[in-house]
Amino acid sequence: MNWHNKKILVAGLGGTGQSLLAWCRANGMDAAGYDAKLNDDTAAALRARFDGVELLSGSLRDALAGRDVLLISPGISRRLPEITEFERIGGTVSGDVDILAHLLRDRSDRIIAITGSNGKTTVTSLVGHLCRACGCDTVVAGNIGTPVLDAWLARGGKSADVWVLELSSFQLETTPHLNAAAAVCLNVSEDHLDRYDDLLDYARAKDAVFNGTGVQVLNADDAFCRAMKRAEREVRWFSLHPLADGYGLSIDKTHLMHRGGALLARERIPLQGEHNAANVLAALALCEAAGLPRKQLLEAVKNFAGLPHRVQKIAEKRGITFIDDSKGTNVGATVAAMAGLPEKIVLIAGGQGKGQDFRPLRDVVRDKARAVLLMGADAQKIADDLSGCGVPVHFCATLPDAVAQAAGLAQAGDTVLLSPACASLDMFRSYVHRGEVFAQAVADWCV
């Protein structure tokens, strides 16, 4: 990736785009920046950070004229007509994760890569925790929050024992040469169908996490994941059922198992929900595939605190448990959260649906929900898809209103679960902000 004599455009000037500009600058490469909606404040901040940088906005086709290399942020689809035309006439398209993969290609640093529709942030955080507990110099980066090139620059190019990378399908679109030592696709469920043709198309984007020669870790319970098995590759399977030759649960679901032997009692895992047992099994499979010792891994699992806004218990008042799963931004996440909780549930959901079909919620709502409270842009679509479930549906103007109604509908022993199955930006700054509003509303109700 010697682009010193090339004309480079970095498209998308959020965190990832700025990390790409910084990497180009650090390596003596001249890159211009492009954002379709570049406002004056952002432009001023960028010029203060990158003295003399050329900044473009408006037409991407015009910005690409005369360029040799396009580095795109995950929020920009590689399939845009302007980009496909740029590639057709010989332009190079890449992204930050592919650059990191090239930087690490001839070094001893190992990559552990995690993708999937649901659970990838939990598994990435857990794997990072486990690697550090085993004494590894560990970098955790990617979709989890720290752009990979920011992490690279912060280390000054110093080697790490392990790079633990959370990778979205968007990042994998521009990552053909990852070659992770161990990689997992946790699951595939409806998400981002406003960007992909269909679910199979989305799964194909996820499958790029396995490009290379490393160990594949695959979910035996997911048909899309099973189809990702590649010939002549080592595969480690995980499942929420007993597996004779993999990582699974005991018949009575009380223990994590490997090839028929008990690893750990589920009650020793400090994470709520059955889906988190699958996350732990996947993390153990990844870490053992990377050569880490089982005894230390199992001890470290016991003190993993989990993540905020991911099936996080925030209060128990008047016999009602309140759980924040604001990071549950797609249907699969909400199904997993509800299925993994034993109590009767009053569900709070809704927001921006991203083109999803909400009908897969029907069975778990029918089986576990006492009521469903809906808010946000796609509340009516969710209600339509849940029609006939036999569970009362209520519409709410705000999240505090939903909390108040949910608390009134819940009975002692029930759980009020915020698991929106939707993105947050129609009503909130982010899923984190949504979770914070939920927590404050619960606190106000509990006074």
TrEMBL record:
GO terms for molecular function: ATP binding; UDP-N-acetylmuramoylalanine-D-glutamate ligase activity. GO terms for biological process: cell division; cell wall organization; peptidoglycan biosynthetic process; regulation of cell shape. Keywords: ATP-binding, Cell cycle, Cell division, Cell shape, Cell wall biogenesis/degradation, Cytoplasm, Ligase, Nucleotide-binding, Peptidoglycan synthesis. It is an enzyme of class 6 (ligase). Pathway: Cell wall biogenesis; peptidoglycan biosynthesis. Residues 114-286 form the Mur ligase central domain. GO terms for cellular component: cytoplasm. Its EC number is 6.3.2.9. PANTHER family: UDP-N-ACETYLMURAMOYLALANINE--D-GLUTAMATE LIGASE. Cell wall formation. Catalyzes the addition of glutamate to the nucleotide precursor UDP-N-acetylmuramoyl-L-alanine (UMA). Belongs to the MurCDEF family. This is UDP-N-acetylmuramoylalanine--D-glutamate ligase. The gene is murD.
